[in-house]
Amino acid sequence: MASKKSKDIAETPELADEAWVSVIQKMDETYADLVHYQVEIERKNLELEQTQGFLDSVQSAMNDVLIVCDKQGVIQQVNSALEQLTGEQADRLIGKPFVELVAQPYQSKITAIQNQLRLTPVRDCEVELMGHEGSVPLAMNCSPRKDKRGRMAGMVMVGRPLGELQKAYKELNKTHAELKLAQERLIQSEKMASLGRLVAGVAHELNNPISFVYGNMHALRRYTEKLVTYFNAVGENSSREELRALRENLRLDRAIQDLNSLVAGTMEGADRVRDIVRDLRQFSSCQEAEKTLFDFNHVIKTALHWIIKESNRPVQVDLNLPPQLMALGHSGQIHQVIVNLIQNAVDAMQQQPQARLELSAGETAERVWFTILDNGPGLPEEHLSRVFDPFFTTKPVGEGTGLGLSISYGIVTEHGGKLSLHNYPSGGVMVRLELPKQVPLTAHQEDRNG
């Protein structure tokens, strides 16, 4: 049949030409498809090479360690950061169980990480890898690597060496501790500077009750000598008439009447000395104590008394305080704040012919407040926003550190209070201090009260 068909084709040249044209067309189409596929393959290969080169450059640029493992924890890929850490090339690391790179105390943690990855990624897990210079702590993030079906095919781990972070953290802690110590020293230095300005007034304040006690003790000693003389006479069995005459001569009746007043006066003077010493210790103490309720009126009066006693010129004081006023905080620290505020007000009135100071206090539902108003010249507007800045002062060089208001502002803020300052419309500067007046309720107490 084939020979017959060939014979038929040969006998019809037109049919033969058409067949060959069809074959050539098919061959051309096939060749064109092959060329197209070759071009596509080359393009895809170029894209793969570019992608691989991009990924390699990204991995090489990473400072963090990159490790890719299969489900069994066998290393499949690493980056140059791990090579540098371990001192081994990638071809020696690939195929190793990842756990062999982990320091012994942390190897059990790797098993826990693999189990956890089936449920959720692991974040900031601290492990130590064995480096060529010893163990290196890492903060490791681990994520599951899944195949096209969504099944877990392995894990990807990225670790950041903690050495630099720990070093930076330690340096930050050290700097913070130094700043905190410097702040405490500045506070104590300013407090001692304020205390030094008050020494003269306090010395005078102590001298009065001590002189009173001293005089009373001299009187008591004289009365004691008289009583000893009288009782010696009683012990010698002197007659009644002799004892009566001796009693009149020694004026024992008057001495006995004076004893109670002398003892009471001595006790009063000693109590006054004790109160002054207590206030001084409270003011100069640098130890932090728990915030407690304290007599705000007493702190105001003591601070005012010290400053006015020490002042080298008369100051008219208008004091408007309620009968009782309690505040919450460290009484010694608040005492320092009020001393600074009053001292600044007195210093601002140095050029006034008649210095006048108005001190008022009161309370609202949640706070106690205290205001100081002087009749000085006030402050320029450009200074008002800077008065609480450290080392800012309007006083001449050598007369102010510029720390008083800054430290006072910090103390009041730490107490949960407010400290503000503004020029008064009629002249002078008004300073307002606000403090909490009760201990804040805990969540449990609020729930119970609710």
From TrEMBL:
Pfam families: HATPase_c, HisKA, PAS. One of its GO terms (biological process) is regulation of DNA-templated transcription. The keyword Amino-acid biosynthesis does not apply. It catalyses: ATP + protein L-histidine = ADP + protein N-phospho-L-histidine. GO terms for molecular function: ATP binding; phosphorelay sensor kinase activity. Its EC number is 2.7.13.3. InterPro entries: HATPase_C_sf, HATPase_dom, His_kinase_dom, HisK_dim/P_dom, HisK_dim/P_sf, PAS, PAS-like_dom_sf, PAS_fold. Residues 201-439 form the Histidine kinase domain. The keyword Phosphoprotein applies. Coiled coil: none annotated. Keywords: ATP-binding, Kinase, Nucleotide-binding, Phosphoprotein, Transferase, Two-component regulatory system. Residues 51-105 form the PAS domain. It comes from the Bacteria. NCBIfam families: sensory_box. This is histidine kinase. It comes from Amphritea atlantica.
